[in-house]
């Protein structure tokens, strides 16, 4: 894997530090999914649903980056396992929504991370925390936009090979 050149003006080692952070998030996601007895894709989808409350399958596909077919199979798996249920949209009875069913002990699964990060956050002043959480919001949007770009580029390249 070749890395793109990091932006100028960053402190020495910033790129490596950020990569290490992303790798740690990935490792924790895998460990949490394993602890829940789920595939990382299923764990990530449940996280999206828990934040959103409920979504139509197309919205879930968009937020997870899965195809609609893969999302249907994911929902089927999660429904069979009792982690989600399909419900009629009260605003449009023809539309089906997917909502999470609280079956996992998420506090036990992510408790160690919450504890350690909570201790870390206590080391920052409120104005520093505001910057951190502003960054988290902006970085999430930037990473999701980059994800869409990567997927579009991959789809274009696949189409060229057909």
Q: Can you walk through the features of this model?
A:
Helix content is 67%, strand content 10%. It contains six helices and three strands. It has a three-stranded antiparallel β-sheet. β2 and β3 form a beta hairpin. α1 packs antiparallel against α5 (106-121) and α3 packs across α4 (68-80). The chain is globular.
SSE diagram, text form:
Layout: H1 14-36, H2 40-52, E1 55-56, H3 57-64, H4 68-80, E2 84-89, E3 92-100, H5 106-121, H6 126-161
Antiparallel strand pairs: 1-3, 2-3
Helix pairs in contact: 1-2, 1-5, 3-4
Question: First CA to last CA: what distance?
Answer: 24 Å
Q: Count of helices?
A: 6
**Largest sheet: number of strands, sense, barrel closure:** 3 strands, antiparallel
Helix/strand structural class: mainly alpha
Mean pLDDT: 91
Compressed to H and E, one letter per element, the order equals HHEHHEEHH
Helix share of residues? 55-70%
Question: Looking across the biggest beta sheet, what order are the strands in?
Answer: 1-3-2
Query: Which segments are poorly predicted (pLDDT under 50) over 5 or more consecutive residues?
Result: none
Inertia-based shape: globular
DSSP summary, beta strand count: 3
Beta content comes to 5-15%
Radius of gyration: 19 Å
Notable traits:
162 residues; 3 strands; three-stranded antiparallel β-sheet; mainly alpha; 67% helix
Summarize the structure.
The protein is mainly α and 162 residues long. It is 67% helix and 10% strand.
């Amino acid at each position: 894997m070749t890395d793109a050149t990091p932006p100028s003006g960053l402190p020495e080692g910033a790129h490596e530090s950020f990569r290490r952070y992303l790798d740690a998030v990935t490792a924790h996601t895998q460990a949490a999914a394993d602890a829940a007895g789920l595939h990382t894709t299923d764990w990530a989808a449940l996280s999206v649903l828990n934040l959103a409350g409920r979504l139509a399958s197309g919205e879930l596909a968009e937020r997870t980056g899965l195809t609609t077919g893969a999302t249907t199979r994911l929902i089927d798996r999660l429904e069979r396992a009792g982690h989600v249920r399909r419900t009629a949209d009260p605003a449009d009875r023809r539309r089906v929504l997917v909502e999470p069913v609280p079956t996992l002990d998420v506090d036990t699964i992510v408790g160690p991370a919450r504890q350690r990060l909570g201790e870390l956050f206590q080391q920052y002043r409120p104005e520093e925390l505001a910057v951190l959480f502003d960054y988290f919001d902006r970085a999430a949007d930037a990473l999701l936009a980059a994800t869409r770009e990567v997927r579009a580029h991959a789809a274009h390249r696949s189409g060229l090979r057909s």
